[in-house]
């Protein structure tokens, strides 16, 4: 743990907020179209309808907001998944939650030609919930009950199944393929603020609830029996955390598609900084997740310029080595 005193942790939050703000501004400024900080300010203060001003207001600003919201949401979802399952590899991507949400959206596009953002949102929530409960159920079967290894295997199996079904649907439906191919790679490009407005109320509720369950999650980490003896309602707490995960992961997929590895990487980085107290981990994950996705999105603009790489590809490049490192350490931190 790098930051041991509460004053240091508060200072770290302020530094994190400043870095998030700088990353947000950089996301608005940098890209294929050359802009500057003064031009970006002018686009909001004295909008003149020029191409540069339109890009700043209608393209870069929504993109930066979506990256910050989705990055923070996926990081917090990964934190609660790891806390509930006691599995360092748990995340919405690895456990098939993102894949389940994506599958439901693709089914709606393929068979029902759905275009409503609100419908996308509810379908993503439904797919995320189905995948989460299916993984938990399969991982609990057997005499040993729920174990980190069984959860990981069940999650990987369901992620592969939903991904295969999704690809199968797209193979036989070229129209749906054109609509969702770039979205399925995980991208914040070409999104509008309307998408954020459709999902933000649900994500905001999940964020708000996340800052109130940290203390009880700390007690849960000591074991179910200890937590129960200290007055924690185990069943209610787990259901609450599961709903938070579904809202955060499902909402993120509805906006930006299945972006991977943020839910694995960021909780571990946050623990390195502030330890295992979830009251501190939740806000740190929110800030660090937003910073990571903003920086990844900026990098995605330059890799093969003038074309862009989907930001989901960039997070996979960043996260894969970290995932291998965590897997090699084993489930007990050895």
Automatic annotation (TrEMBL):
GO molecular function annotation: transmembrane transporter activity
One GO cellular component term: plasma membrane
Keyword Ion transport: no
Membrane-related topology note: Multi-pass membrane protein
Highest taxon in the source lineage: Bacteria
InterPro entries per UniProt: ABC_BtuC-like, ABC_transptr_permease_BtuC
Keyword Transmembrane helix among UniProt keywords: yes
Record's subcellular location: Cell membrane
Segment forming the signal sequence: none
Record Pfam families: FecCD
Any one GO biological process: siderophore-iron import into cell
Alphabetic keyword roster: Cell membrane, Membrane, Transmembrane, Transmembrane helix, Transport
Residues spanning the membrane: 64-81, 93-114, 120-139, 151-172, 192-214, 281-303, 309-327
Family affiliation: Belongs to the binding-protein-dependent transport system permease family. FecCD subfamily.
PANTHER family referenced in this protein's UniProt entry, alphabetically: FERRIC ENTEROBACTIN TRANSPORT SYSTEM PERMEASE PROTEIN, SIDEROPHORE TRANSPORT SYSTEM PERMEASE PROTEIN YFIZ-RELATED
Name assigned to this protein: Iron ABC transporter
Organism: Sutcliffiella horikoshii
Highest classification ranks of the organism: Bacteria, Bacillati, Bacillota, Bacilli, Bacillales
